[in-house]
Amino acid sequence: MKVNEKSKFGMRELIAIIYIVIGSKFTDMTPTMLFQTGENASWMIPIISILIMTIPLWFLYQLLKNYRDKNLVEIARRVVGSKLGFFIGVVLFVTALVSTIIDTRSYTEIIGTLYYPSSPIIALYFIYLVGAYLVAIKGISGISRVSWSIFPYVLFSVLLLIFFTFKEFVFFRTLPILGPGPEPILKESIIKVSIFAELIFFGMLYPFIKNEQSYKKGTIFGAGLSVICISCFIFLYSALFDFPTVQRVSFPFHEMARYASVGDYITNTETFYLTFWLLASIVKYSIYLYITILIFSATFKIKNQKKLFPLFSLFIFFVGLLPKNTPIIMHYREMLLHTASLLIPIIPVLLWIIAKWRGEFKR
Question: What is the mean pLDDT of residues 118-137?
Answer without folding.
Answer: 91
